[in-house]
Amino acid sequence: MQSLKEGLLNRAFSHIYVEKRAMEYNLTKEILKRLEGSKIIEIEHYKDVFSRANQDFYLQKKSPKLILAVKNNNLIYKGAEVCEDFGNKHFYYTSIMMNCIYDCEYCYLQGMYTSSNIVIFVNIDDYFKEVEELLKMHPVYLCISYDTDLLAFEGLTNYVREFVKFAKVNKDLTIEIRTKSANFSLIRDIEPQDNVILAWTLSPDGVIEKYEHRTPNLKRRVESIKEAVDRGWRVRLCFDPILYIKNWREEYRVLVEEVFSKIDADKIYDVSIGLFRVSKDYLKRMRRQRPDSIVLNFPYDSVEGVCSYDKELSENMIGYVYSLVGKYVDKKKIYI
Prior knowledge:
- The protein is built from 13 helices and 18 strands.
- It has helices at about 1-5, 25-35, 45-50, 55-60, 110, 125-135, 155, 160-170, 205-210, 220-230, 250-260, 280-290, 310-325; strands at about 15-20, 40-45, 65-70, 75-80, 90-95, 95-100, 105, 120, 140-145, 175-180, 195-200, 210-215, 235-240, 270-275, 280, 300-305, 305-310, 335.
- It starts with a helix and ends with a strand.
């Protein structure tokens, strides 16, 4: 029955919803050309589709639709306190896309949004203008790939390429591009910039196979990282989120040893280590979407509205992975 149900689903992006005001943007035209064969549906506003009530996030993940839109106002946000700022005073993030093509079981987006359809805001120049206004006041540290995976979409949008070009002429801007993809080949021709950081999320193969659905395996991620590092890019390794799984100590020991057997630790810009943590309200919605999920239904502690492992377990997990990474990387370059 399950295979029959999945067989009735459309392929990803079989339908593309386009705001009327987005129709004339060059990126809209390029995407529609690249996805010839998709049904195009004109809409007034992306929220008419994206924010409808009674949507099934998990079911939509099996056949996501694409929404092309124009976003006005509030394009750049102050960084959230639960996010690592890496010592940057003026920490911001932006969501030029909403949602991700991957389907990580623990992803907070399924608690944040009612829809798993993907929104691309095509007015990238407006985002650049807002960053330029901030730069008139102070340097900016900008994370551009928190609520999506821009590098995973690079073949469709070229947004990573455009942001790197923008960073090249704005030296007071530092950009972090977080990813789980193996798509470095799509940007290998770009000259690396000292103010652009490629940040790869790394997990044990056991976690990838069970919980990071549709993502590249560890081997492919490491191959992309090695090529980026060897070409002179600043690369951040993110062992985050660490999950409490069966044989977690062995899983993470193998992960760290495998990564640094392939990658020169001296060439790594820095390392981030973090545990699974999510808003209490988001977790409630995530559990409704995936009632059988082992990782989501763990009895987490809730402190000031954020759910994570209890204090003793948290310290054990962080301390253990920190000790593993510290064998290879200067501890001054490890952020927790």
